[in-house]
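Handoff note, outgoing to incoming analyst
You'll be picking up this chain. Sequence as last confirmed:
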Amino acid sequence: MEQPSTPGSLVAADPAVAHFLSYLEGERNASENTISGYLGDLAQFVESAWGAGARAPFDWGGADKFSARKFLVAFQKAGAAPATVHRKLSSLRSFYKFLVREDLVPNNPFGAVAAPKRGKYLPQVLSIEEITRLLDAPAQVLRESVKPDADPARRQWAEYAASRDAAILEALYSTGVRVNELATLSDSDVDLVSGVAKVRGKGKKERLCPLGRPAVAALHDAIQKRDALAFAKGGARARGRALFVNAGGGRLTTRSIERLMKRYLARAGLSPEVSPHALRHSFATHLLDKGADLRSVQELLGHASLSTTQIYAHVSVERMKAVYEKAHLRP
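Most recent structure output, in case you need it:
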């Protein structure tokens, strides 16, 4: 049975888009997530400019500044965040810049379009006390949910799941990695003796992330429990094996990590709206609070630009001001 075409696949059939994707993969070393994001934005522009039934090849040169403005204004009217509109503008600008350079279109209709003003945004940061409650939650859930007389196989799985989840939360906070970077880790990427993890970030760039002692201990325990499970027999510590696995022995997905975290947020009495990325924000902010320099935090986070990291310096200052206003006699 023929699989239905997705908007992204229909756009990818366009020769100009295919050429652009080859450039992203070959010269920009773009990740699958980045390429998927470009395809989504291009598909939305195609629908805006030529209608939902349009088919490749598309008349990219026929789009003008009015087409570009119409596309972006539709998102603003729909209530999209300024950051979302900025990203779509950046995607289309990059695409048309490439087409102009390759002499496929005469001009870039998005070149002169003004971006919406960004609102002041400070990332969500958990306090040390909130982090501690969250990290303790997997063990508490295990104690409450599994009875001593439970079926041995069920108990073994529950103990691994709790150990795995504790290691996930410890690793997210200890390294500041993005959740998709954590989900793609394999055994060979983690050196528990040296206490480092090799992470593949945006643009497939690799970096080494130090692991704190609690994270190393949690990972060691999780790996031992994983390898004791029935599906792990005979392949313990195999090169390339997923570091975190589900009940079938397959790699745990990013979505699964987000779902399991919500369970522990509830147990810790924290908002279910807190995302795994908040642990990355907390990691960076707590480092700066303790005196780490901005450049080191930039390297640990894998940011290409120092300006991206500077938001955490503002968070640290805002936290300092909040403490001052709360504690000082004459704030």
